[in-house]
Every structure is written in structure tokens, then in C-alpha cells.
Amino acid sequence: MVNLEYKDLLDAGVHFGHLKKKWNPHMSPYIFMERNGIHIIDLKKTLKMLDEAARVAKQLSLSGRKVLFVATKKQAKEIVEMEAKRVNMPYVTERWLGGMLTNFSTVRKSIKRMTQIEKMAADGTFERINKKERLMLAREKAKLEKVLGGIADLNRLPSALFVVDIVKEHIAVAEARNLNIPTIAMVDTNSNPNLVDFPIPANDDAAKSIQLIMRTITDAIAEGLEERKKRREDDKIKREADRQKKGDAGSSEDAPEASENA
To answer: Within its chain, how far is the Cα of 94 from the centroid?
Structure first.
């Protein structure tokens, strides 16, 4: 499924891990060698596991389910937001609020509050309140939008998480594990891949590496969405054809009766 080649990963620096002294022993099966004190990731395994992760992502979108993208580190934020928006998936690129998954009902209340303020601004309510109240509401909305804007349309818990850097996003990973929500993640040599369901051994610090892995996953999601759309259109055409057949059959049965009455 993945159309990447070994060279694509090399060019993006996906193989560069952390210094040997920072490694996590659980990553040993995915480390190819050590060079100048830096661990080098086995890209053959990266390709294989990326392909598996992409298949999972495609199947989720094909089933109409949501994947929540999580990345709050500076070099990943813009990439993740752009790619998530491309396939209309929720994302968190600012601060991960503790309980964002495990206390989702409370988070939904905050999202509703943000939506309520947006409606107040749109329906003219802002014009009927004093300047101080208007300023306070505008600040509240900006604060909520910064943290929750990426999940504003998430009405229920996501079906999976995609995480860049599970060390930095350990709270998100822990919450997903607690709720048995499948996790797909880029795991660098300082990570424990056993904490996620579908690890992708890769450099999670370089922007080019993050971009390549993200694009591969979102391309798979886009493919799933397109197939889902086509299936629905085919089903609609089939239902319409069946309806017409039933209508034609009914007309044929009524014809002899009409002749006898004549």
C-alpha cells in the first residue's frame, strides 16, 4: 500500500535516532546500527510497519471513523495541523489537556461554550453588551479556540490516535491506553514502542521525517474516504435501480387487470 521507497526515507532523515546514551532498550529490534554515537533506525522495518499503520488508518476512514492527531512539539505542530485538516480529521497541536479523553464529557462542555460565544458574536448579542464583557468573551473564545479548535467537531471519542513523539505526549498515550483506544505513533530510539499498538520506527524530531510519515498516513486516510464515498454512491445507484425495477414490475402486473376492466 505504501508507495515509498527506501531512498525516500533516507532523504527525509527518517533513519536518524538519538544518541546511544538516550536509547530505550525496547527499541533494540528496530535499531540497525550505531554510527558516531548515534543509533540508526532499520528502515526496512520502518517501511513494513508504516505500511501496516497506513492500512489501519485507511480502514478506519473507510468505516467512517475518526483518527485524532496529536503533536505539540514545535517542529510538528504546523505539519500535523495542515495534514489533519486536509483529510478533515481532529487534531491537538497546542497543549494536551489532562483528561481530554478520559474526561471527554467535560471537554465537550468547553467546546459547547466556545460555540456559544461564536453564536453570540454572529447573532448580534455582542452589540448589546458592554465593551468590558465583550472583551472578556473574546478572550475566553480565543483561549478555548487555541486549545480546543482542532477538536471542535469531535462529538465522540476518536477511534484511534496518531501521535508524534510518545515521550512528549505520554499523557495522551496513557489516556488512550486506559480507554482501549488504538494508537499509531512515530517512535524514536528513546521511546518504548510497546506502549502503542502500531509503532512506526522513525525520527520524530526532524520536520522532513515527520512530514513524510504524516503525509503517508493522511494519504491512506484520503484513499479510505474516497472509497467510502464511492461505495455510498454505488449503493445509492443500486437502490434507485432496484426501486425502478419494482416500479416496472408493479406496472406489468396491473396491465392485464386494466385490460379486463376495459
So the answer is: 15
CA dist 23 to 96, 172, 233, Å? 25, 21, 50
Radius of gyration of the chain (CA): 25
Q: What is the DSSP letter of 97?
A: P
149 and 227 in a common domain = no
At 103-152, the pLDDT tens digits run 999 999 999 999 899 888 888 887 788 888 888 988 998 999 999 999 99
| Cβ-contact 159, 90 below 8 angstroms | no
Q: CA 14 to CA 42: how far, in whole Å?
A: 10
Residue 36 zone, left/alpha/beta (φ > 0; ψ -120 to 50; rest): left
Domain that holds residue 22: 6-100+157-236
Same domain, yes or no: 86 and 174: yes
Alpha carbons 2 and 113: distance in angstroms, whole number: 41
Q: How far is CA 87 from the centre of its chain?
A: 8
Task: Judge residue 145's burial from the number of C-beta atoms within 10 Å of its C-beta, 0-12 exposed, 13-18 middle, 19 or more buried.
Answer: middle
Please state, in angstroms and rounded to a whole number, the distance separating the CA atoms of residues 124 and 183.
Answer: 43
pLDDT digits (tens, 9 = 90+) for 78-114: 999 999 999 999 999 999 999 999 999 999 999 999 9
What region, left, alpha or beta, does residue 99 occupy, with left being phi > 0 and alpha being psi -120 to 50 degrees? left
Structural domain count of the chain: 2
Helix-, strand-, coil-residue percentages of the chain, each rounded to 5: 60, 15, 25
